Amino acid sequence: MLAALGVDGIDLLSNNPDKAAQPRAPGARVRDRIPTGVFVTIGNLHYLRAKAEHTGHSIELGNHADLLARTPLAI
Question: Which of 19, 26, 34, 61 has its CA 20 to 30 A from that of 11?
């Protein structure tokens, strides 16, 4: 389909580095992987940190001391 449209590659929007390395269908060459932004909340901070630290996702968490001070979970 991509070849029929004259597309020789795609830019993949993903924080997961493994997605760009996975085998693709013919004509679906990944030219670049562009990380997406994330919205950090008290409810997802620990989840996002685990994805970044344990699975290598390129997630910029920054300094969220304000959220950490309000969460009962230990980091």
Answer: 61
CA 44/CA 73 separation, integer angstroms: 12
Q: What is the mean pLDDT of residues 6-16?
A: 87
Regarding pTM above 0.70, the answer is no
Select from 18, 16, 46, 12 the least CA-distant residue to 31. Answer: 12
* Residues facing residue 66 across a β-bridge: none
Q: What is the DSSP string of 28-51?
A: --EEEEEPPP----TTTHHHHHHH
Q: Give the type of residue at 14.
A: S
